[in-house]
Amino acid sequence: MSNVEQVIYVSRARPGLGGDDLARILASARRRNPAQGLTGFLAFHGQAFLQVLEGSPAALTSCLASLVTDTRHSQIRLVAVGPVAQRRFATWSMGYAPVATRHLDLLPEARRDAAEALLQIDADKALALLQALAADAAATGSEATPAPLASGAGATAGASSLFSASSIRWPAA
Question: How far apart are CA 147 and CA 137, in angstroms?
Fold first, then answer.
């Protein structure tokens, strides 16, 4: 049985990041994630990314090591890290949805500045928002169509976290 961990992070998008950039991010993730046994969902609003990734500690470490050097975003903050009994985003190689106004009701502080509210989100609200976005995307059959995982990628996790954020070379603040 392999261990499955979940990582949720937020980051600030590079100024001027556009739809073509998002399309490239998603295409790359959807191409690479199944072979690595990774699943996840990406949300975007204004200048803020919110993403959940699920997979083995080794796959998450490799993916995050790549993400921290990606110049399309900065100010990466881990919101939650730990084992999961089962994947919550198992059918998504990398789902995507923009954060719609109706979803911002989960963040009362978003009335002032939605992107800043996303960048300061806590673990419970982040997971609730990502699950709501994924449910809407699945129900509407949006462009963020789930892609199948490589066989055996949906295993359950052990009791303690094996992923170590300290193994990532984080950029200087």
Answer: 13
Structure pTM? 0.79
Structure tokens at 137: 């995307």
Give me the number of domains the chain comprises: 1
49-76 pLDDT per residue, tens: 999 999 999 999 999 888 888 888 988 8
Give the ranges where the chain is alpha helix by DSSP (H).
Answer: 19-36, 57-67, 114-119, 123-140
CB 47 within 8 A of CB 113: no
At position 58, the amino acid (one-letter code) is A
Q: Let me know if 41 is exposed, middle or buried by CB neighbors in 10 A (0-12, 13-18, 19+).
A: buried
pLDDT at 72: 85
State which residues form the domain around 27: 5-162
